[in-house]
Design brief:
It is built from 4 helices and 7 strands. The protein has about 140 residues and is of the alpha+beta class.
Amino acid sequence: MSYLESPIDERYRLMLLEHYLTDAIEMPYEGFKKWKFVCPFCAPLSSKHYKKKEKKGGLIWDPRQNSWFFHCAKQKSGECMSNKNFANFISALNPSLGEAYRRERWHSGTTGKGHNCKAPQTVVGVATGSYGSMRSRSRP
């Protein structure tokens, strides 16, 4: 079993578990880890109180990408109709937190082509492209 969570992913996962995800529990999943919790997207849309507390959302470890992805078993909201990689899940919960996550990944050199996280929109006033660190260069 290979479980190589980056320090950046760990910090943001713990932040999400503490501040954004309700009733999260850790459990084994196909030899790896999974966090099960109340889906933050479709649970508020449920009409019955007991359905609002069902743990249908999950952060599942993907060993091929060495990262987490989000999956909802209910899929009752547009936000949880399909799986999301970790960066997109963070952005869906809190866009500014998602941008901060992408910025940290960019500084560590783990965004863009060949990675599971696109580059941030801006990094200290420098616009980046959708694939990595394409920076505008002024020519003399």
